[in-house]
Write a structure and sequence with these properties.
Blueprint lengths: L3 E5 L2 H4 L12 H4 L2 H4 L2 H6 L1 H17 L4 H13 L3 E5 L5 H5 L4 E3 L2 E8 L5 E3 L19 E5 L9 H10 L2 E5 L11 H7 L3 E6 L11 E4 L2 H14 L2
Parallel strand pairs: 1-2, 1-7, 2-3, 7-8, 8-9
Antiparallel strand pairs: 4-5, 4-6
Helix pairs in contact: 6-10
Bound molecules: 2'-O-acetyl adenosine-5-diphosphoribose.
């Protein structure tokens, strides 16, 4: 059976009601990315950064997965170990939809960890009323478990191993401008995979895409994945 590797970005969650970053009305229009999504910004003003991620965490818990997420659950059920999702999203919607083989390369809004003793916690188990939440174990400062600009994404070795083995690489809802995620499609193509993109606008890395489906992932994916499953 062919091996499928999926890379998702903010676009797949847009139809769930979560704002993307770079579209009109994207998050980076009214937030300074250097202040709320960089390690330097966090050191300058941790309380501002916590306010931003507490609000995003609360919002992510209010929304639900959409038909695009659920289509990927069906594909995983059909493919089992021959299927993996790498997501840049921190909203946990793939996991809440029911996908199991999910790599959250930019971390998760659901998680935080202690800067002093490195203990990891679920946000749900932490006192979020403090402007700067503290570690229950050592009273050190907690930080959101998000990979910020200036930090290295998670699980890059596992991602590289999956890239080497995949036959089909599908990119969904990402502008293709943030590296290293944006470079994965190029690597997959050079390593011999067929590349497919599903996106509202043309992504920056379109030249590495063999098959482009333009439109909303919540509308395109259920049909596209049904076709893929009929031909497995
Ligand atoms: P972007 O906001 O850069 O791109 C979202 C893409 O989704 C755009 O190309 C849109 O055209 C497309 N899109 C919007 N609605 C869609 C829909 N309904 N169906 C399909 N596509 C749709 O978001 P990302 O590429 O995910 O990193 O951004 C990458 C990283 O930049 C994020 O993980 C985040 C951000 O800064 C960090 O915070 C570290």
């Amino acid at each position: 059976m062919k091996k499928y590797l999926i890379l998702t970005g903010a676009g797949i969650s847009a139809e769930s009601g979560i704002r993307t970053f770079r579209d009109n009305d994207g998050l980076w229009e009214d937030h300074d990315v250097n202040e709320v999504a960089s390690i330097d910004g966090y050191r300058r003003n941790p309380e501002l950064v916590w306010r931003f991620y507490k609000a995003r965490y609360a919002q992510s818990m209010e929304v639900s997965p959409n038909p695009g997420h659920y289509a990927l659950v069906e594909l995983e059920k059909a493919l089992g170990d021959n299927f993996h999702i790498i997501t840049q999203n921190v909203d946990a919607l793939h996991i809440r939809a029911g996908n199991q083989r999910v790599i959250e390369m930019h971390g998760s809004l659901q998680d935080c960890f202690c800067e002093s003793c490195d203990t990891h916690y679920k946000m749900a188990d932490i006192d979020l009323s403090l402007a700067r939440p503290l570690c229950p174990k050592c009273t050190g400062f907690l930080r959101p478990d998000i990979v910020w600009f200036g930090e290295i994404p998670y699980k890059m070795e596992q991602i590289e191993a999956l890239l080497r083995k995949c036959d089909l690489f599908m990119v969904i809802g990402t502008s293709g401008v943030v590296y290293p995620a944006a470079g994965l499609v190029m690597t997959a193509k050079y390593l011999g995979a067929k590349t497919i993109a599903v996106n509202l606008e043309k992504p920056d890395n379109l030249s590495f895409i063999d098959e482009f489906h333009q439109g909303k992932s919540g509308e395109i994916l259920p049909k596209l994945i049904k076709e893929i499953m009929e031909n497995l």
